[in-house]
Design brief:
It is a single chain. The chain is α/β, with parallel strands linked by helices. 39% of the residues lie in helices and 16% in strands. Strands 11-12-15-10-16 form a 5-stranded parallel β-sheet, with helices on both faces. It has a 4-stranded mixed β-sheet with strand order 1-2-4-3. β8, α5 and β9 form a beta-alpha-beta unit. α2 packs across α3 and α21 crosses α22.
């Protein structure tokens, strides 16, 4: 007897449909054969399935069982095939019948006693099931809240093989898991930090407001303890709230990696990732076999903070150059290519010299010019060219540290950011571009027109500082953002001057 079911396997962050075909035929000795490019975790499922069937009160078939996972050229991974294989064996052996197999996909791992365990990528599988036009998907109860984020499909939570059989046979009614999108956003969309905790550094806060408004990359240079990390950690608090689409995009990445927090099936705040400087290239941009997302993809729709930038391996940093501009990263292997989203803001911090105290009036720096040159030379010019704003973050004076007055709050900064984002939304309403930092060269020429005096200022700056064409366009994009915050439709000379000043560290430290 032949049974056929629908399930999914993960490839990168995408879920691909798989047909589970189970055929039972008489044989002298019981034997189970699993075909269809199963990896080790899937091959071992036959042993779990046998014991789960028996321990759930069903009969283990004493026949030859052939299980085919189609298409046969697609590698199958993870133990999420346990539940569909068990259901297929029970139907194939005639232990129950169901008319719901064409309407519902089935995923889930089984314990030996027959209870279900959560699976990775439940959200991606629910999205794929909806795209396939299926009525619903049967998932382990612990993964149901994550899959239920998809509102276009019924998500049936089951806690055991017996419950799944009862639902498919029609003898047990199970209510679909509710979506609760709005409730999840209300519950998890708060931040525990605020910019008012940072004393002083109002110039740095101004630069961060600009960066958040136009989604510009930013580099902070200053001595240890000046507040660079505090500033960076609070940047997500002034960014616009995640939309439902952005949240699902980002949650998918954490879902396939199994890194969603317990009890939080949806990311409602923008991610903030701060990898250690010893991270490898695959850890940063993604890799492995099969390819999995790296830190830049985990920062999708959020912030990637690289502290102590010169301490990172130069080769590791260089692999970020193309993803920074494209917003996607493609990992190629011999048989397959995986593409992951990585539309993030890069915030970097660095000391001005190896000891960290160059330019600090309170501490003496003993670093020699060659040492400083070698230290800063670890950051390549092409990477620096892709960072829009460079600022100095000096040490905070004692009077500001000990004062009772709070600094500018996140709420006040967010109001400015939202006003600037609104101006950009109106400007790019009929285009794919959303922020000033993402403008194409053609859009820069269209929306960043200068008068004669401003054009002369820009020409002199480019020639004196030796800026590239990319840096030229980035100055115009930043000037456009400054003008948006100022509420003006045209870029004025004062806006351009401020934008040029944010490139001065390029000249001072890397010349």
């Amino acid at each position: 007897m032949l049974a056929k079911l629908k399930t999914f396997t993960l490839l990168g962050i995408d879920a691909l449909p798989v047909d589970v075909e189970v055929d039972l035929s008489p044989a002298a000795l019981p034997k189970t054969i699993l075909v269809g490019l199963p990896e080790t975790a899937v091959k071992e499922s036959t042993h779990r399935v046998e014991r789960a069937i028996v321990n759930s009160g069903f009969t283990r078939p004493q026949d030859r069982v052939v299980i085919n996972l189609a298409p046969g050229d697609l590698p199958k991974q993870a133990p999420s095939f346990d539940l569909p294989i068990s259901i297929g064996v029970l139907i194939g052996s005639g232990q129950f019948q169901s008319d719901r197999l064409d309407d519902y996909a089935i995923v889930g791992e089984l314990a030996l006693e027959g209870y279900t365990r959560p699976v990775k990528g439940a959200l991606s599988m629910a999205i794929a099931a909806a795209a396939e036009g299926m009525k619903g998907i049967i998932v382990p109860a612990e993964s149901a809240a994550e899959a239920a984020v998809v509102e276009d499909i019924e998500v049936i939570p089951v806690d055991s093989l017996v419950a799944a059989v009862g639902f498919l046979a029609g003898s047990l009614d199970i209510e679909p898991a509710p979506s609760r999108l709005e409730q999840l956003f209300d519950e998890f969309s708060t931040y525990e930090v605020d910019f008012c905790d940072v004393r002083g550094q109002e110039v740095a806060k101004r630069a961060l407001t600009l960066a958040a408004t136009g989604k510009h990359n930013l580099l902070m240079i200053g001595p240890p303890g000046s507040g660079k990390t505090m500033l960076a950690k609070r940047l997500p608090t002034i960014l616009p709230r995640l939309t439902a689409a952005e949240s699902i995009e980002t949650t998918r990445i954490y879902s396939v990696l199994g890194q969603l927090r317990a009890g939080q099936p949806l990311l409602a705040t923008r991610p903030f990732r701060s990898p250690h400087h010893t991270i490898s290239e695959p850890g940063l941009v993604g890799g492995g076999s099969p390819p999995s997302p790296g830190e830049i993809s985990k920062s999708h729709n959020g912030v990637l903070f690289l502290d102590e930038l010169p301490e990172f391996n130069r080769k590791t940093l260089e692999v970020m150059r193309q993803p920074l501009e494209d917003g996607i990263v493609t990992i190629s292997r011999a048989l397959r290519t995986s593409t992951f989203p990585c539309n993030f803001m890069l915030i970097a911090a660095a000391n001005p010299c190896p000891c960290g105290y160059r330019g600090d009036t309170r501490r003496q720096c003993n670093c020699t010019p060659p040492q400083i040159e070698r230290y800063m030379g670890r950051i390549s010019g092409p990477l620096l060219d892709r960072i829009d704003i460079h600022i100095e973050v000096p040490a905070v004076p004692f009077d500001e540290l000990s004062g009772r007055a709070s600094g500018t709050s996140s709420a006040a900064m967010r109001e400015e950011v939202l006003a600037g984002r609104l101006a950009q939304a109106e400007r790019f309403c009929d285009r794919t571009t959303r922020c000033n930092a993402d403008m194409t060269s053609r859009e820069v020429r269209e929306f960043c027109k200068l008068d004669k005096s401003s054009r002369d200022l820009l020409r002199d700056s480019v020639e004196e500082m030796g800026l590239s064409a990319r840096a030229h366009d980035k100055i115009l994009r930043v000037a456009r953002t400054i003008a948006d915050l100022d509420g003006t439709e045209t870029i004025q000379q004062v806006h351009l001057q401020e934008a040029v000043n944010y490139r001065l560290l390029d000249r001072d430290l890397w010349s």
